[in-house]
Write a structure and sequence with these properties.
Arc Repressor Mutant, subunit A; 4 helices
Length: 102
């Protein structure tokens, strides 16, 4: 039974929504502690499995995986740029980049 999106998933969605087409290296930023990186990868994998985020690209050096928000999710949340009817809900994630450092 799911309780909704976790904090890392909301952070990932925020960054992918702000700049669609980010690669894993761009999402991760500077190298993280291995346990933090594993948690971030699992959160991203869960978003892909739940069809909230789509993967584009073949995964090679010339065409790395790029992550974008699924169009149905954008419309469903009311994102005006995607043709939705209202503003997306949710609080500010301005503190998000510092959550994984440590």
């Amino acid at each position: 039974m799911s309780r909704g999106l976790g904090q890392l998933q909301r952070i990932l969605i925020h960054h992918i929504r702000a700049k669609p087409g980010l690669t894993w290296a761009e999402l991760r930023g500077e190298p993280l502690h291995p346990t933090h990186e594993r948690s971030l990868r699992r959160a991203l994998r869960r978003l892909v499995d739940d069809k909230v985020v789509m993967i584009q690209g073949s995964g090679g050096r010339r065409d790395p995986f790029r992550y974008v928000i699924h169009p149905a999710v954008l419309v469903g949340t009311g994102d005006r740029e995607a043709g939705g009817v209202g503003a997306p809900s949710g609080g500010s994630l301005a503190h998000a980049p510092g959550l994984l450092r440590g």
